[in-house]
Amino acid sequence: AQKITQTQPGMFVQEKEAVTLDCTYDTSDPSYGLFWYKQPSSGEMIFLIYQGSYDQQNATEGRYSLNFQKARKSANLVISASQLGDSAMYFCAMRDNFNKFYFGSGTKLNVKP
Amino acid sequence: GAVVSQHPSRVICKSGTSVKIECRSLDFQATTMFWYRQFPKQSLMLMATSNEGSKATYEQGVEKDKFLINHASLTLSTLTVTSAHPEDSSFYICSATRRKVKPYEQYFGPGTRLTVT
What we know:
- Chain A contains no helices and 12 strands.
- Chain A is mainly beta.
- In chain A, a hairpin with a 2-residue loop joins strand 7 and strand 8 (about 65-70).
- Chain A is globular and about 40 Å long.
- By secondary structure, chain B is mainly beta.
- Chain B has strands spanning about 5, 10-15, 20-25, 30-40, 45-50, 55-60, 65-75, 75-80, 90-100, 105-110, 110-115.
- In chain B, a hairpin with a 5-residue loop joins strand 4 and strand 5 (about 45-50).
- The radius of gyration of chain B is 13 Å and the shape is globular.
């Protein structure tokens, strides 16, 4: 069964605007971690933000915030004030209780000037 | 800190030959290292999980005799693609988790692009 679902293959956003990238997950473990990674065309995976399943507050890292809705099993990434350099593939991932990571299919974000 | 390197970054080899890819954690000891494969415009697919000093655990559908993984130390894991064929051409990425510190985060290497001709 698919553990991580990203339903948006591609997204466009105007520079300086905010954008939300969707991610839903599936697990019966009480303890898990949710991650977002950015992959530019160079291929490197860049860690953006982390949310633990027991964390009460939504994680934030600079312009990135994670909208964590546990009951809905969603972990959407919000990028505020988009920049041209934000254009890349974005992957949502979940770490399970065995420290194994599952990645979504990715969302290609294009920031328009 | 928490830098992971991969070598080589790109490799082109002929069909039938073997290729070794190295993954090193430069400034930390890695509890576990992971090997992923990524086809163009697709997601990362976990191939195997490697713990220092023990045999790698391969995901279903990954041929362990074809993709040999050796985790010789807490800072080095190698992936050898044996008898490579054009369909093995892909982007291979390793990652590592830190020993005793933040075990919930993976640090990724920059990836190795393998082309088999």
